[in-house]
Amino acid sequence: MSTERAAGGQPPSRVPTLTEELQVPLRTEPQVPPRLTEVLQAPPGGVDGLPIHPAAAQPAATAASAEHDNALAQRLLADMQQHLDRVLEARIAAAIEPLLEQLSSRLLAEARGELASSLREAMAVALARELSRHRAEPGPR
C-alpha cells in the first residue's frame, strides 16, 4: 500500500481503495493453472552451470508421455484406493467391535437363561415321572 505523503508532510486527501492500489484485473472465466514444467523453466545453460538432460528439456506433450502420465495416475489412484480401504476397514472394525461385544454378551446371557429354563423344565418333568412311578409301585423299597 502506498504510504506517500502530500507536499508539506500532510497525509493525502484521499486514500485509494484496495483494488486501485493493487490494480487487479477482473477475471471473467476460470483459468487453468500452469503445469509445473511451465512454471519451472530452466535457463538454456542449465541451473548453476549443470547441463539440462535432453529429455527434461523437451515438453511432456508426446502421446507416449501422456500415456505414461495416465498410467501413473491410474496406479496412484489404485494405491490410494487400497490405502483408503485399509483405513476404513480398520476404523469400521474399531467402531463395530464394542457393539459386537455387547451383542454377543446379550446373546450369551439370553442363551444361558433359555438353557437354564429348559433344564429346569426337563428336571421338573423327569422328577414328576420318577415320583409317579415310585407311587405306582406297590410296597416300599
Describe it:
- By secondary structure, the protein is mainly α.
- Helices cover 62% and strands 0% of the residues.
- The protein is built from four helices and no strands.
- The chain has helices spanning 18-22, 36-39, 54-57, 63-136.
- The longest helix has 74 residues, at 63-136.
- The protein is elongated and about 135 Å long.
- It starts with 17 loop residues before the first helix and ends in a 5-residue tail after the last helix.
- The model has no long low-confidence stretch (mean pLDDT 76).
Give a quick set of tags describing it.
141 residues, 4 helices, 0% strand, elongated
What string, H for helix and E for strand, traces the elements in order? HHHH
What is the residue-averaged pLDDT?
A: 76
Q: Could you give a short account of the major beta sheet?
A: none
Global geometry: elongated
First CA to last CA: what distance?
Answer: 118 Å
Uncertain spans: none
Helix residue percentage:
55-70%
Write down the Rg. Answer: 43 Å
User: Strand content of the residues, in percent?
Assistant: under 5%
How many β strands by DSSP? 0
| Count of DSSP-assigned helices | 4
Structural class by helix and strand composition? mainly alpha
Outline:
The protein has four helices and no strands.
What's the layout of helices and strands?
Layout: H1 18-22, H2 36-39, H3 54-57, H4 63-136
